[in-house]
Amino acid sequence: MVVLLCSFKQMKASLVITFCFIYLYSFAQTDSLPPANKLVLNYVNTQVGNHIKTGMCFDFVAEALDQVDPNWRERRRKLLHRGTRIYGKRIRIKKLQQGDIILFEWKNIESRTKRRTTHVCIAYSIDKSGNIKVAEQNGDGAAQSKTKVWINNFDPTGKANGTKVYKLRYYRPY
User: Fold this and answer.
1) From 5, 48, 58, 123, which residue has the greatest number of CB atoms within 10 Å?
2) Over the stretch 14-23, which tens digit does the pLDDT of each residue have?
3) What DSSP assignment string belongs to the chain?
Protein backbone atom coordinates (compact mmCIF):
# COMPACT_ATOMS: atom_id res chain seq x y z
CA MET A 1 0.00 0.00 0.00
CA VAL A 2 2.82 2.39 0.84
CA VAL A 3 4.42 1.65 -2.52
CA LEU A 4 1.18 2.48 -4.34
CA LEU A 5 0.75 5.79 -2.48
CA CYS A 6 4.32 6.75 -3.18
CA SER A 7 4.01 6.00 -6.88
CA PHE A 8 0.66 7.85 -7.01
CA LYS A 9 2.29 10.93 -5.45
CA GLN A 10 5.14 10.73 -7.94
CA MET A 11 2.71 10.33 -10.83
CA LYS A 12 0.64 13.28 -9.62
CA ALA A 13 3.75 15.46 -9.30
CA SER A 14 4.92 14.51 -12.79
CA LEU A 15 1.49 15.35 -14.22
CA VAL A 16 1.55 18.76 -12.55
CA ILE A 17 5.03 19.43 -13.92
CA THR A 18 3.96 18.29 -17.41
CA PHE A 19 0.88 20.56 -17.44
CA CYS A 20 2.95 23.50 -16.19
CA PHE A 21 5.48 22.92 -18.96
CA ILE A 22 2.75 22.73 -21.65
CA TYR A 23 1.10 25.91 -20.32
CA LEU A 24 4.38 27.81 -20.20
CA TYR A 25 5.36 26.57 -23.68
CA SER A 26 2.06 27.70 -25.20
CA PHE A 27 2.29 31.03 -23.34
CA ALA A 28 5.84 31.54 -24.60
CA GLN A 29 4.73 30.88 -28.17
CA THR A 30 1.97 33.48 -28.07
CA ASP A 31 4.09 35.84 -25.97
CA SER A 32 6.60 36.19 -28.83
CA LEU A 33 3.89 37.15 -31.33
CA PRO A 34 3.48 40.69 -32.63
CA PRO A 35 0.67 42.60 -30.83
CA ALA A 36 -1.53 42.57 -33.98
CA ASN A 37 -1.30 38.78 -34.23
CA LYS A 38 -2.31 38.45 -30.56
CA LEU A 39 -5.39 40.60 -31.18
CA VAL A 40 -6.34 38.48 -34.21
CA LEU A 41 -5.94 35.24 -32.20
CA ASN A 42 -7.96 36.62 -29.30
CA TYR A 43 -10.76 37.41 -31.73
CA VAL A 44 -10.55 33.96 -33.34
CA ASN A 45 -10.77 32.25 -29.95
CA THR A 46 -13.99 34.10 -29.15
CA GLN A 47 -15.59 33.28 -32.53
CA VAL A 48 -15.02 29.53 -33.01
CA GLY A 49 -18.45 28.00 -33.63
CA ASN A 50 -20.08 31.34 -34.48
CA HIS A 51 -21.48 32.50 -37.82
CA ILE A 52 -19.89 35.82 -38.85
CA LYS A 53 -22.02 38.19 -40.98
CA THR A 54 -22.80 36.56 -44.38
CA GLY A 55 -20.75 33.43 -43.73
CA MET A 56 -18.09 34.28 -46.30
CA CYS A 57 -14.44 33.68 -45.45
CA PHE A 58 -13.66 37.36 -46.03
CA ASP A 59 -16.18 38.48 -43.39
CA PHE A 60 -14.44 36.45 -40.71
CA VAL A 61 -10.94 37.70 -41.59
CA ALA A 62 -12.14 41.30 -42.03
CA GLU A 63 -13.73 41.28 -38.57
CA ALA A 64 -10.49 39.90 -37.09
CA LEU A 65 -8.45 42.62 -38.80
CA ASP A 66 -10.92 45.26 -37.57
CA GLN A 67 -9.80 44.31 -34.05
CA VAL A 68 -6.26 45.35 -34.99
CA ASP A 69 -6.94 48.46 -37.08
CA PRO A 70 -10.41 49.69 -38.01
CA ASN A 71 -8.87 51.65 -40.93
CA TRP A 72 -7.12 48.72 -42.64
CA ARG A 73 -9.82 48.59 -45.32
CA GLU A 74 -8.89 52.07 -46.59
CA ARG A 75 -5.31 51.00 -47.32
CA ARG A 76 -6.66 47.86 -48.96
CA ARG A 77 -9.08 49.80 -51.22
CA LYS A 78 -6.25 51.94 -52.58
CA LEU A 79 -4.46 48.81 -53.78
CA LEU A 80 -7.47 46.79 -54.98
CA HIS A 81 -7.73 48.69 -58.26
CA ARG A 82 -4.52 46.90 -59.30
CA GLY A 83 -6.08 43.53 -58.55
CA THR A 84 -3.99 43.06 -55.42
CA ARG A 85 -5.61 41.80 -52.25
CA ILE A 86 -3.97 43.21 -49.14
CA TYR A 87 -4.46 41.85 -45.62
CA GLY A 88 -1.29 43.28 -44.06
CA LYS A 89 2.42 43.14 -44.79
CA ARG A 90 3.31 40.37 -47.25
CA ILE A 91 5.57 37.69 -45.73
CA ARG A 92 7.08 34.36 -46.79
CA ILE A 93 5.83 31.05 -45.42
CA LYS A 94 9.07 30.64 -43.43
CA LYS A 95 8.03 33.69 -41.37
CA LEU A 96 4.42 32.51 -40.85
CA GLN A 97 3.17 32.83 -37.26
CA GLN A 98 -0.11 32.33 -35.46
CA GLY A 99 -2.53 35.12 -36.33
CA ASP A 100 -1.14 35.67 -39.84
CA ILE A 101 -3.47 35.68 -42.85
CA ILE A 102 -3.31 33.05 -45.61
CA LEU A 103 -4.80 33.76 -49.06
CA PHE A 104 -5.50 30.90 -51.49
CA GLU A 105 -6.00 31.53 -55.22
CA TRP A 106 -7.26 29.01 -57.76
CA LYS A 107 -7.40 29.47 -61.50
CA ASN A 108 -11.04 29.55 -62.45
CA ILE A 109 -11.06 27.07 -65.34
CA GLU A 110 -14.84 26.85 -65.71
CA SER A 111 -15.44 30.60 -65.82
CA ARG A 112 -15.14 32.69 -68.97
CA THR A 113 -13.87 35.62 -66.93
CA LYS A 114 -10.27 36.04 -65.89
CA ARG A 115 -11.30 36.40 -62.26
CA ARG A 116 -9.76 33.88 -59.90
CA THR A 117 -11.46 32.04 -57.08
CA THR A 118 -10.01 32.87 -53.66
CA HIS A 119 -10.25 31.82 -50.03
CA VAL A 120 -8.77 33.56 -47.00
CA CYS A 121 -8.16 32.19 -43.52
CA ILE A 122 -6.07 32.76 -40.38
CA ALA A 123 -3.09 30.70 -39.20
CA TYR A 124 -4.30 29.36 -35.85
CA SER A 125 -1.47 27.13 -34.69
CA ILE A 126 1.86 25.85 -35.95
CA ASP A 127 3.50 22.87 -34.26
CA LYS A 128 7.20 22.04 -34.06
CA SER A 129 7.08 19.84 -37.16
CA GLY A 130 5.55 22.66 -39.22
CA ASN A 131 1.96 21.39 -39.36
CA ILE A 132 -0.42 24.34 -39.57
CA LYS A 133 -4.01 24.60 -38.41
CA VAL A 134 -6.14 27.43 -39.72
CA ALA A 135 -9.28 29.17 -38.51
CA GLU A 136 -11.72 29.67 -41.34
CA GLN A 137 -15.32 30.16 -42.34
CA ASN A 138 -17.06 28.95 -45.51
CA GLY A 139 -14.59 26.17 -46.14
CA ASP A 140 -15.15 22.65 -47.39
CA GLY A 141 -17.84 23.66 -49.87
CA ALA A 142 -20.45 24.44 -47.21
CA ALA A 143 -23.32 26.81 -48.00
CA GLN A 144 -22.47 30.29 -46.72
CA SER A 145 -25.66 30.56 -44.72
CA LYS A 146 -24.69 27.48 -42.69
CA THR A 147 -20.98 28.09 -42.16
CA LYS A 148 -19.40 28.76 -38.81
CA VAL A 149 -15.84 29.52 -37.78
CA TRP A 150 -13.92 26.27 -37.37
CA ILE A 151 -10.35 25.03 -37.03
CA ASN A 152 -9.01 22.90 -39.88
CA ASN A 153 -5.72 21.43 -41.09
CA PHE A 154 -3.93 23.66 -43.61
CA ASP A 155 -3.71 21.98 -47.02
CA PRO A 156 -1.38 23.99 -49.28
CA THR A 157 -2.02 21.64 -52.22
CA GLY A 158 -5.76 22.23 -52.41
CA LYS A 159 -6.26 18.56 -53.27
CA ALA A 160 -8.79 18.18 -50.46
CA ASN A 161 -11.14 20.41 -52.45
CA GLY A 162 -10.36 18.63 -55.71
CA THR A 163 -8.49 21.55 -57.27
CA LYS A 164 -4.87 22.62 -57.32
CA VAL A 165 -3.95 25.88 -55.61
CA TYR A 166 -2.59 28.42 -58.08
CA LYS A 167 -1.02 30.81 -55.54
CA LEU A 168 -0.65 31.06 -51.80
CA ARG A 169 0.08 34.41 -50.17
CA TYR A 170 0.84 35.12 -46.54
CA TYR A 171 0.26 38.40 -44.69
CA ARG A 172 1.21 39.77 -41.28
CA PRO A 173 -1.58 41.99 -39.90
CA TYR A 174 -0.63 45.67 -39.50
Assistant:
1) 123
2) 434 433 433 3
3) -HHHHHHHHHHHHHHHHHHHHHHHHHHHHHHTS-HHHHHHHHHHHHHTTPPPTTS-HHHHHHHHHHHH-TTHHHHHHHHHTTT---SSEEE-GGG--TT-EEEEEE--SS-SSSPPEEEEEEEEEE-TT--EEEEESS-TT--GGG---EEEE--TT-GGGTS--SEEEEEE--
